[in-house]
Amino acid sequence: MTTVIDGKQVAASVIEAVKSATAALEAESHIKTGLAVIIVGDDPASHAYVGAKSRMAKESGFKSVQHTLPAETTQEELAALVQSLNADPSIHGILVQLPLPKHLKSEPIIQSILPEKDVDGLHVVNAGKLAIGDLDTGLISCTPAGAMIFVKRTHGADLSGLNAVVIGRSNLFGKPMAQLLLNANATVTIAHSRTKDLRAVCRNADILVAAVGRPEMVRADWVKPGATVIDVGINRVPAPEKGEGKSRLVGDVAFEECAKVASVITPVPGGVGPMTIAMLMANTVIAAHRAAGKPAPKF
Ligand code: GUN
User: Fold this and answer.
1) In 3D, which of 149, 108, 111, 112 has the Cα closest to residue 127?
2) Distance (Å) from CA 98 to ligand 1 centroid
3) What is the pLDDT of residues 223-275, one digit of tens each?
4) Number of independent structural domains in the chain
5) Do 89 and 114 touch, CB atoms closer than 8 A?
6) Which of 6, 44, 105, 107 has a C-alpha 20 to 30 A away from that of 13?
7) The domain spanning residue 236 has which CATH number?
8) Is residue 120 among the annotated active site residues?
9) Residue 179 appears among annotated catalytic residues
10) Nearest C-alpha to atom 3 of ligand 1 is from which residue?
11) What is the pLDDT of residue 39?
């Protein structure tokens, strides 16, 4: 029997743990965990994501602040806002929603966030800590951290002897995911668009993680029988069967056929997606504990 991971349920269990840790910190230290989310411009998809993040922060018991800036905001104005949030002791996490409007450079903005408030895990200090295996003082990018929770709940914390293949080499996901798997003792391959015989590489994976942004690219004959398959892709494709102009979401994995071969698989939607916001909340309450000099909760 194939297990289909229910990402909503796992995310809800993470949020419950976040709520307890938030309440305990407030009771013991009178510190309310604070998250600031910045959005520039009016991209509807980004506004939907940011709204969901702000709502979840409130539900978790945080002080939740959203800064909505007009599309014409200058680099200097945005930088000044980040500086003021860096200096604000009531804010423990800062997230700048990406992508920014074209005239703004995102990298200097991301790198100007204090690493201890970088709850997206995108600062080079946090990327570097992950690279040297320091998982105790850095903050880990939310989507790989969420995907890793699925891996650990399936295989335990020690992946010794298991082959893991990550398809995709982005800074936001592929690289940190590979580092997390390596840190847990897996034998890790990072595959990408220039990899020779991708199918054969993937078929060797006990843990296959797909993050390429190509709808249903991973087929059944790419999957090792009994493997764990984690699908990080979110692709909108036309769905004429639902009516003219309609669309649906699919992952990077051809779910129906791969589910017949894998022993554990994540669906899209409802797999890794819900974990990203949950891990953002987890990172924020971790940052608040560290700022208070308290041992941080583990997720
Ligand atoms: N835009 C889409 N995903 C993300 C994310 O994880 N973090 C940020 N900051 N922006 C995003």
Assistant:
1) 111
2) 5
3) 999 999 999 999 999 999 999 999 999 999 999 999 999 999 999 999 999 99
4) 2
5) no
6) 44
7) 3.40.50.720
8) yes
9) no
10) 98
11) 98
